[in-house]
Amino acid sequence: xxxxxxxxxxxxxxxxxxxxxxxxxxxxxxxxxxxxxxxxxxxxxxxxxxxxxxxxxxxxxxxxxxxxxxxxxxxxxxxxxxxxxxxxxxxxxxxxxxxxxxxxxxxxxxxxxxxxxxxxxxxxxxxxxxxxxxxxxxxxxxxxxxxxxxxxxxxxxxxxxxxxxxxxxxxxxxxxxxxxxxxxxxxxxxxxxxxxxxxxxxxxxxxxxxxxxxxxxxxxxxxxxxxxxxxxxxxxxxxxxxxxxxxxxxxxxxxxxxxxxxxxxxxxxxxxxxxxxxxxxxxxxxxxxxxxxxxxxxxxxxxxxxxxxxxxxxxxxxxxxxxxxxxxxxxxxxxxxxxxxxxxxxxxxxxxxxxxxxxxxxxxxxxxxxxxxxxxxxxxxxxxxxxxxxxxxxxxxxxxxxxxxxxxxxxxxxxxxxxxxxxxxxxxxxxxxxxxxxxxxxxxxxxxxxxxxxxxxxxxxxxxxxxxxxxxxxxxxx
Amino acid sequence: xxxxxxxxxxxxxxxxxxxxxxxxxxxxxxxxxxxxxxxxxxxxxxxxxxxxxxxxxxxxxxxxxxxxxxxxxxxxxxxxxxxxxxxxxxxxxxxxxxxxxxxxxxxxxxxxxxxxxxxxxxxxxxxxxxxxxxxxxxxxxxxxxxxxxxxxxxxxxxxxxxxxxxxxxxxxxxxxxxxxxxxxxxxxxxxxxxxxxxxxxxxxx
Lengths: 478, 205
Hints:
The complex is a heterodimer of chains A (about 475) and B (about 200). Chain A has helices spanning about 1-10, 10-30, 35-55, 75-100, 105-125, 125-145, 150-185, 190-200, 205-220, 230-235, 240-245, 245-265, 270-290, 295-315, 320-345, 365, 370-380, 390-400, 405-430, 445-465, 465-475, and strands spanning about 60-65, 70. Chain A is an all-alpha fold. In chain A, helix 8 runs parallel beside helix 12 and helix 14 packs antiparallel against helix 15. With about 200 residues, chain B is an all-alpha fold. Chain B contains nine helices and no strands. The interface between A and B is large, with 46 and 28 residues.
């Protein structure tokens, strides 16, 4: 009994989120439509409480549940950002869902279970837990994409996502089983030990790594495993796209670190090459194809692919500096993505989806403040100083240059410059085009405040990136 | 070649054949039955690996429960599978080429050696060794967290299935048994006072 309590002492935030999600499940049954906002409040309280618990645990370290669960500085930071981004997502989603009669407790329940899956990924220290955390997160996301049952596009997107996700899970499992066969253990620490101790005699483990990377790249949305991403981002309700685009990227980053760095760092020369190919392809496809998009959700989906390429660049550097840069990139990207899609929900209203880039036409004349915020987000995604996107890209490029992969850094810069075009096109449309509809924005006051704070955070982090960078360095021992 | 190895190749061959037939047979019922065969042979392989408990669970759960349900569904829903197969032959050459390339690559990689790091077969267990007991001993102790999370995944599956299917569509009709029981005669029957119809022939007098 004592040992279980000792194990649980590292996992209080997870226990709390699970309990609260179950409470929400029951409470929501007894709520009438008028009081549905209680579900929303409960979800926010849950995230706030989990953040307090995680903050209370900061500084502690250790493994629990016979090594399956690890609690360290990285897991704490990632979890805090997962709560923060999810809380923003829940807020932006509220009015959007309400206007479409989709505001149901299930959105927040599935959202919380997805958050639980992401937290487990951040803390997973065995192949089994990585898989289970991933499935928990993915299953919640599949259901959320299909959430609006009256929309055939959403159902189609969910179907695509589900089938391709199942194939990717199969790939990942196959890779894990090969690694288990080669090393005789599911525990990440033991696998790492086996790889470094005995050297890599066989091809089996490399063979397994290929399948692992395919599965991971699919979940992250890196090319050439990105096919699902534009369709799912476009088809899902914007509130769900918002959810998909932000916090799960943090979890995907955690997966890369736990598997490749904690587990397979002895094979860095092998996965480095594969990641390099995927990174360049992601940058190329993401930035070039995005130019042709007229739908802003689809455009941001391609932008996600290109950002995934940057994240991979940081990881493939194979140095603590590189990992820290990738972590900084991921965290700031999650904030930018939440703000970007949040802005789309702010512009949408009952019976109107602000999905096309043309819907942003003349935003400056409708709401100069919101137009300014959107411009800030777009500049940050493009990587224009002094926004945080610039520093995130700079950090990753520095890490890549530090290990003498100049051609990779050049490719990244080249494609980023191409990418700047389509971000800045949105800014041009907002400021220099005539508005097609002049109706004022309808977003609630708290949503406006948080979206503004979110966008200003992008500027603030760009002006003062030191603290977050230091946190990332500390978390990854750089 | 030992007897065990012969058995392994026999079962493996049947398994691959059955798996191929699952995706190639025209009749969905046949596909489901071949899947049953595939489960049976893979459970035989597990017995060769001395995992008796898991082998029997596989047969009980997958063959006994899941596949029977699956057969029910296939037989009850009269799905016409022909349209689903459209384009199969058109994409077959490309798919076959890709598959062949992948198989060739896998063979090339594995021919260079498939040795494991901490390899070797595990030592055989004594005759009175109980698989069931061994699983029971670790399932709620060492594997407590994965076990709990697996149950959470099932819970999410339940929530998702209900959230996606239980909805009020326009046009569906629901019964309310409470209302039906409480119905009174006066709610349904109305006695209308009417003048007696005048007999034909005597009218307009």
